Amino acid sequence: MENIDNIIEIKRGLHKICGRKLVNAIADLEKSEAFFKDLFVVYGLIYNTETLIQKRVFVAAVTKYFILDRLPKEYLSFGDGKYEYATKAITKPLEQVVDTYFEIRSTSDSSEDFKKKYAENFNEEVKDFSKEISENRDDSLSDFAKIVKKVYYSENDKKTK
Q1: 3-state secondary structure at position 31
Q2: Burial letters for 13-48: b for 16+ Cβ neighbours within 10 Å, e otherwise?
């Protein structure tokens, strides 16, 4: 069963590199959440909403490597720093890319074995996402936002008394 909060956070990660239509096409895939959940496991991350909030850069990076880089070029366009799909018939190619991922994953004994087999399948070096994994979202607030938050909570405290 899909967790709507997780899907929302996946979409927020996808928005870093994809236009709205492509974000929705990827997120609407039947195996979308299973795909991202498995990638978190492969790379040693806990899959939950809190982690997804912090790992949007990782979501974007793995999407590019495992999905966008695997699609035939005629299906994608790139403009304004984001990928978008160039044709209406994107669902089937997206499903095929995700199915290929799961086919390779099902023949792997471990996460390391999978990474190696996946790279070999595409004649590439094993991809390391340690930089993206180590990068967390900046939750710090600006001074202005901190003041607004403080005023908001002080006003609410007055109303409850």
Answers
A1: coil
A2: bbbbbbbeebbebbbebeebbebbbbbbebbebebe
Per-residue pLDDT, 137:
67
- From 112, 124, 105, 98, select the one nearest 43 (Cα to Cα): 112
Q: How many other CB atoms are found less than 10 A from the CB of residue 94? A: 22
How far apart are alpha carbons 95 and 20 in whole angstroms? 18
Nearest of 4, 134, 116 to residue 58 by alpha carbon: 134
Residues 6 or more apart whose Cβ sits within 8 Å of residue 83 = 17, 18, 19, 22, 64, 68, 76, 77
11-25, 80-94, 104-118: least confidently modelled range: 80-94
Give dist(CA 114, CA 106) in Å, integer.
9
Longest Cα pair distance anywhere in the chain, in angstroms?
66
- Distance between CA 43 and CA 161 in Å, rounded? 49
46-85 per-position pLDDT tens digit:
999 999 999 999 999 999 999 999 998 888 888 888 999 8
* Alpha carbons 72 and 27: distance in angstroms, whole number: 19
